[in-house]
Amino acid sequence: MSVITISRGSFSGGKTLAECLCKRLGYRCIDRDVIVQRAAAFGPSEEELKYALEKPPGFLERFQHKRYRYLALIQAALAEEVRTGKAVYHGLAGHLLLKGGHPILRTRIIAPMEVRIQMLQQRLGYTRARAASYIEQVDADRRKWTRFLYGVDWQDPALYDLVLNLEHITIEDACRMIATIVLERCFELTPECQQRMDDLALGSRVRAALAVDPGTCDLEVEVGARSGAVSVRGEVSTIAQIEDVRRVASATRGVDSLDLAHLAPPIRA
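Given the sequence above, the corresponding structure tokens read:
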């Protein structure tokens, strides 16, 4: 089996479900903090990365390029963390960050507001009014975040393979249902699928390296990879910067060949 991603609103039971699945299947449980810690190894502080993940467009619109850099680092960290499969990731936009990799069972967990309010009250001791306000604000921020960055509504069921409503089923029931799908090998990690995930990890690794190197950190490029062959496309500031891209990408682990034919300075009128 490959990777299970769990999308959920705050206090909808996603963490508990992830832990249940990992115990039942013998998978690794990965949350946002693990990915942020790995991404911080590229340079930005964990606080900066968490802030970028939590804040809606108001913050990100003022720092367009910083948004690009942070996402490049987070995607690289997540792709590397789940590259070998057998992992459950419960964090924001995992199914979008891993798009194009090997088979991912994209799950969405929803729960009635009253259930979520009670969970928050029990865990943090909030009043009912404060708990409801907190949940509504976090959900609104996440909706704005995913629409701004990916142009999609994170609540759209078409983005997921499986949507489970915990109104009338327990987390244990949901865990058993998802585990059954996995054990019936509907999302088997074949050699071809493993190659796709390796390609995604390599392309993300190169993009992250470009995002932090002083000579290329101002660029926003697309990076593709296939069995060690990497292509970079986009605009550079000068012809000389192409050599900076060549230097950084060539030095990245896993790159066997490099295609920069679609990398050029902007055309001036």
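The first strand starts at residue 3 and ends at 8. Try to locate this feature in the token string yourself.
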